[in-house]
Amino acid sequence: KEFLVEISGTTVTITCPLTANSITWKLAGVTLTSNERKYVIENHDSAPANVSCSSGDKEYHMYLNARVCTNCEELDALAVTGIITADLLITFGVLILVYYFSKDRKGRASPSAGSRPRGQKVQRPPPVPNPDYEPIRKGQREVYAGLESRGF
């Protein structure tokens, strides 16, 4: 069995796993006997503390390290979902507006001095090789047969 800890603002509520009528709570050396399974700590200062609850021969211990704040706002799941959904809708709306406004600008030519007409790129044929440096191909060795090395 486990403790149940609830935090709301600076109030911490601890529920003991025992179901007996008389429960003894110990918190930071202070002992309190109560008929309640819940122990409420008002204005908790976020300091770690050892908490225990006991009844008869059964005793449960817990190390409480709860962070609390005075200016916190609690949001339920519906509010968080609404905020995220609204943020996504606004973001997509801005994206669509930017897309449509930038789409119209693509067709206009800019009046800059260095602009040239943009057409399809025409592929040029490769440059004609210089016949003086034509590589030797198979079957054409006789063309170069008369070129022998000369001694100087």
UniProtKB/TrEMBL annotation:
The chain crosses the membrane at residues 77-101. Its main location: membrane. It comes from the Eukaryota. Keywords: Cell membrane, Immunity, Immunoglobulin domain, Membrane, Receptor, Signal, Transmembrane, Transmembrane helix. It is a single-pass type I membrane protein. One of its GO terms (cellular component) is alpha-beta T cell receptor complex. InterPro entries: CD3_esu/gsu/dsu, Ig-like_fold, Phos_immunorcpt_sig_ITAM. PANTHER family: T-CELL SURFACE GLYCOPROTEIN CD3 EPSILON CHAIN, T-CELL SURFACE GLYCOPROTEIN CD3 GAMMA CHAIN / DELTA CHAIN. This is T-cell surface glycoprotein CD3 epsilon chain. It comes from Phaetusa simplex (large-billed tern).
